UniProtKB/TrEMBL annotation:
PANTHER family: AMINE OXIDASE, AMINE OXIDASE [FLAVIN-CONTAINING] B. It comes from the Bacteria. Belongs to the flavin monoamine oxidase family. This is FAD-dependent oxidoreductase. It comes from Exiguobacterium acetylicum (Brevibacterium acetylicum). InterPro entries: Amino_oxidase (IPR002937), FAD/NAD-bd_sf (IPR036188), Flavin_MAO (IPR050703). Residues 108-338 form the Amine oxidase domain. Pfam families: Amino_oxidase, NAD_binding_8.
Length: 350
């Protein structure tokens, strides 16, 4: 069997490895010049040592995410437990409070960043499987071909869209997808597409000296949620998710955003927060291979993610990805679960 996979995020890479292990031929078309999709890990060099920081997904939860645990064990990837010792800082309009938070579920990070999962999966694929800088514009459903960079592929037995539903809706299909299916695809928000993430580095995690965990929640500042992102040995680091909506962020320069975030961190953690030694910023709402115009609207509730059937005329095409998993949508585990669901369904049909 010959399978085309559109997208080299974790769901596309995981499906490709599973399919090749089963003896099938696979071609991955990836629009970006790198693998990973919304996995983006950046290195920061300090005193000759490189430290990895994630600007996309950061954690997995071993008590409730068995597929991620199995994958990490399979590839023997070193992990770090998320630091949560000490008090959380809570910022309200009338001031800042400290609170001890009990019984938080164990969250793990990867020492070399989440990209190490993507790299480990890609390393197990047959050379030439992944075609970078190969955006797909159209799918010829009748002949089971994809059109990438203006070129029509050879026929495939199956085509799998490892894409957020809204990006899948932007593709051209011959014949066209039913309007009801397009509406369903458009209705599912892309996880992280509304968000931006910043990372601020310091010579050491100074907040620990004050009995703070580095975790903070703000109902008034630009950044709504903050966590410790420090490596086990090395500099201190804090990362934050933004409260300011995408449209408002895009009216500001990155320098203005940095200045505002640092002022907020000073309020939360004291004057030492002003002495940063590094800054990283990623606005996912401006990433054309992640977000659509519809994703500019901030989420008000957690989306009700679910699998989508593309219709009887498009039976040779399937959609996978974290947005299609009802129990772990938005998590890396959801992306892996979507692959296992596809394989189970495919096995039942063959």
């Amino acid at each position: 069997m010959n399978v085309a996979i559109i997208g080299a995020g974790i769901s596309g890479l995981y499906l490709a490895t599973r399919m090749q292990e089963l003896g099938h031929a696979v071609t991955i078309y990836e629009a970006r010049d790198r693998i990973g999709g919304r996995i983006e890990t950046i290195d920061f060099n300090l005193a000759g040592q490189a430290y990895a920081f994630d600007l996309g997904p950061t954690w997995f939860w071993p008590d409730s995410e068995p597929l991620m645990v199995d994958l990490i064990h399979r590839f023997d990837l070193p992990t770090l437990e998320q630091y949560a010792t000490g008090a959380l800082r809570l910022e309200r309009a009338d001031g800042i409070e400290s609170h001890l938070v009990a019984n938080q579920p164990t969250a793990l990070r990867l020492r070399d960043g989440i990209r190490s999962v993507a790299m480990a999966l890609a390393a197990r694929l047959t050379p030439g499987t992944i075609r970078l800088k190969s955006p797909v514009s159209q799918i010829d459903v009748m002949n089971r071909r994809v059109i990438s960079s203006g070129r029509k592929s050879q026929p495939f037995d199956e085509i799998v869209l490892a894409l957020p539903p809204r990006l899948a809706a932007r593709l051209s299909y011959v014949p066209a997808l039913p309007e009801a299916v397009l509406d369903e695809l458009e209705a599912l928000p892309t996880w992280m597409a509304q968000q931006a993430k910043c990372l601020i580095l310091y010579e050491k995690p100074f907040w620990c000296d004050s009995g703070w965990s580095g975790q903070a929640i703000s109902w008034t500042g630009m950044v709504q949620e903050i966590h410790d992102a420090s490596p086990q040995d090395g500099p201190g680091a804090l990362f934050g998710f933004f409260r300011t909506p995408a449209r408002e962020r895009q009216l500001l320069t990155e320098a203005e955003i940095k200045k505002t975030v640092l002022a907020q961190l000073v309020r939360l953690f004291g004057e030492q927060a002003r002495q940063s030694i590094g800054w990283l910023y990623k606005d996912w709402s401006t990433d054309s291979w992640t977000a659509t115009r519809a994703d500019a609207a901030p989420l008000v509730d957690f989306p009700a993610y679910h699998a989508i059937n593309l219709g009887v005329e498009h039976v040779a095409i399937s959609l996978i990805g974290t947005e299609t998993d009802p129990s772990h949508g938005g998590h890396l585990e959801g992306a892996l679960r979507s692959v296992e669901r596809y394989l189970k369904k495919r096995g039942a049909e063959k």
